[in-house]
Design brief:
Blueprint: E1 4-9, H1 11-15, H2 19-28, E2 32-39, H3 43-49, H4 59-66, E3 71-77, H5 81-89, H6 102-106, E4 115-117, H7 121-131
Antiparallel strand pairs: 1-3, 1-4, 2-3
């Protein structure tokens, strides 16, 4: 079975109608989207999804942002997909992300960075259970 990762096009990018453009970047790299879902996070879902950050000072702001609008989630499959996806999306802060990365091209702030992606197999396993 091919490796899988979860990506979530965040509310800032969905509001700007960027979900299709963002997801097309993964297809251009030869990856396959096996599941797709558009939805709104509840506060409870967001708290569970971001539980790894629950003790951090930005946790409340993170939950508030991800619940502020519609998101598009996708399970993406392919060889080495977790590592390659991290390269495609770029650094968390769009100001530090390289041009040509999703965050470098579309992100406008540390929260409004357009996309979330699982950073490990363990993160994927936890996150996919919250979303799908």
């Amino acid at each position: 079975m091919a490796e899988q990762t979860l990506v979530i096009v965040k509310p800032d990018a969905v509001k700007r109608n960027l979900a299709e453009e963002i997801l097309s970047r993964f297809k251009k790299k030869g990856f396959r989207i096996s599941k797709l879902k558009t939805f709104n996070f509840t506060v409870e879902m967001a708290e569970q999804f971001y539980s790894v950050h629950s003790s951090k000072p930005f946790f409340g702001e993170l939950v508030s942002f991800i619940t502020s609008g519609t998101v598009t989630a996708a399970i993406i499959e392919g060889d080495n997909v977790i590592n390659v996806t991290r390269e495609i999306i770029g650094k968390t802060n769009p100001k530090e992300a390289s041009p040509g990365t999703i965050r470098g091209d579309f992100g406008t702030g540390i929260l409004e960075n357009s996309i979330h992606a699982s950073d490990s197999r363990e993160s994927f396993d936890k996150e996919v259970n919250v979303v799908f």
